[in-house]
Design brief:
Blueprint lengths: L5 H29 L1 E2 L6 E6 L5 H22 L5 H10 L1 H14 L6 E11 L2 E3 L2 E3 L2 E10 L6 E7 L5 E2 L4 E2 L3 H33 L1
Parallel strand pairs: 1-5, 2-6
Antiparallel strand pairs: 2-7, 3-6, 4-5, 8-9
Organism: Shouchella xiaoxiensis
InterPro entries: Spore_II_R
Protein name: Stage II sporulation protein R
């Protein structure tokens, strides 16, 4: 029966610990390189607060979201400057108000609402593909429907990132992003095999 010596056990544990730490460090570095963080000063966002969480109020929110997003996207798609985008959006706030009023009227709702362009709208951290928008205060179009007590919805108006899967409220991935994620998974698998190979190498040196 094979008996492990205390020194051998300690050496083995240290080797495994160092290997795992190296793997975690490489994984964190790769993740940091893949994810690009965007400053709050470089984005204009959209936030819509539904009247309530009822099915009908959420449906109204989604319809207004679609119309507002489609209109603003037409305005800012060809713009390169956030200052220009902000000026265009602020200059067309009346159009956004008309869109909201029209959608409410279509549904026969006599519901109050506000449409504002504010520089201090709070957002949580959101990830769109490999782009991270950290939590904080952003310039944003803020639409409040009725009491504004329902689940809200947000996206990025500039640079335009509101091309979303409306069922999940998450940004659609491009083919390149999907391929890159698949490559990351493959790298993680290869790293895992590296740890196993290292363990077997240490074991062979000690007890082979």
């Amino acid at each position: 029966m094979l008996t492990l010596k205390p020194k051998a056990i300690i050496y083995l544990l240290i080797s495994l610990f160092v290997g795992l730490m190296s793997w975690e460090a490489q994984n964190a570095q790769a993740e940091g390189q893949f994810h690009q963080e965007v400053s709050a000063e470089d984005a204009i966002r959209l936030r819509i607060l539904a009247n309530s969480d009822s099915i009908s109020d959420q449906a109204v929110k989604r319809d207004i979201r679609d119309e507002v997003n489609a209109e603003i996207t037409k305005w800012v798609t060809e713009l390169d400057s956030i200052e220009d985008a902000a000026a265009v959006i602020q200059g067309n706030m009346a159009t956004l108000e008309e869109i909201v009023a029209t959608e409410l009227a279509k549904k026969g709702l006599d519901q109050s609402f506000t449409v504002a362009f504010d520089s201090d709208v709070s957002f949580p951290t959101k990830l769109y593909g490999n782009i991270v928008y950290p939590a904080g205060l952003y310039e944003a179009v803020l639409i409040t429907l009725g009491e504004g007590q329902g689940e809200n919805w947000w996206c990025v108006l500039f640079p335009p990132l509101c091309f979303v899967d409306m069922d999940n409220a998450e940004a659609k991935q491009t083919e390149a992003e999907t391929l890159q994620e698949e490559q990351e998974v493959e790298e993680e698998v290869e790293t895992s095999f590296f740890i196993v190979d290292m363990f077997e190498s240490v074991w062979d040196r000690l007890f082979g």
